[in-house]
Amino acid sequence: MQQAGEGQGISVRQIEELFHAKYETLCMIAVRYVDELELAKDLVQEFFVYVWNKRDQIQLKSSFEAYAVRSVKNICITHIKRQRDLIIYQGGELPEIAFDPDGTINDERLKAKIYSKLTEALNKLPAERKKLFLMSNVQGLTYAEIAERNNISVNTVKTQIKKAYATLRSQLSENLLIGILLSV
User: Fold this and answer.
1) Are residues 85 and 146 in the same domain?
2) Residue range 157-164: average pLDDT?
3) What DSSP assignment string belongs to the chain?
4) 71 and 27 within one domain
């Protein structure tokens, strides 16, 4: 695939080559963000329409392929942000079909996905941190009880659980929490 020179727009040939060579790859990249194939295809289509309309004005600093991947990711992130903002603007509530009146999730597929992502993130924690986190959140033990059972200080328990939450938030917030908002 050719690379546009500095100061040149994107040629029709480059657009056609990229479309034929990388359309499916770009769709798979988009699916990782939006978790729905038809929406992913729409977002990739949006990218190609934008490129077509702006082909004389776009100045590439890297390969067209790298530009396409970066652009599709950005389009997906923008879409996610707009959906999140729309949900917040409409009162901050998720659609009713996702939750029972008591606040529990009633979609089994969604529950399985959440459980899978959470388990994956928990398994990435250091063994001791994971153990302390589970003792607190699954077994319902107090920090003092955890400290006593493990012969460590309460401050160590607090610190380790705080670090576990921070790690889980960083691993789950963008991919899972936004995904949960958009998949229901």
Assistant:
1) no
2) 90
3) ---PPTT----HHHHHHHHHHHHHHHHHHHHHHHS-HHHHHHHHHHHHHHHHHHTTT---SS-HHHHHHHHHHHHHHHHHHHHHHHHHHTTS---GGGB-TTS-B--HHHHHHHHHHHHHHHHTS-HHHHHHHHHHHTS---HHHHHHHHT--HHHHHHHHHHHHHHHHHHHIIIIIHHHHHH-
4) yes
